[in-house]
Specification:
Length: 78
């Protein structure tokens, strides 16, 4: 799924993204590290992947805020 970087804290390597419908979703340092990024600037287009909060499965369906968390964030490439 694609999103736009909204906030990023270099000290904690965490922040949030905005889905295309405007929904903000947080990500933690583990998701940031999984993407191999060194820096993220607000406004950059990113690709995100989700996992169920219960620990099973992954996917990128709309409505991800309900019981899902971001497990990977990386730059969107064409």
């Amino acid at each position: 799924m694609q999103a736009t970087a909204y906030t990023y804290d270099d000290a904690t390597r965490s922040g949030s993204v905005l889905l295309d419908d405007g929904t903000p979703l947080p990500f933690d340092a583990a998701a940031f590290d999984a993407g191999g990024l060194r820096l993220l600037r607000p406004g950059q287009r990113v690709r995100i992947e989700f996992a169920d909060e219960a620990g099973g499965g992954d996917g990128a369906e709309a409505g991800a805020a309900g019981g899902r968390r971001i497990v990977l964030i990386t730059l969107q490439t064409l």
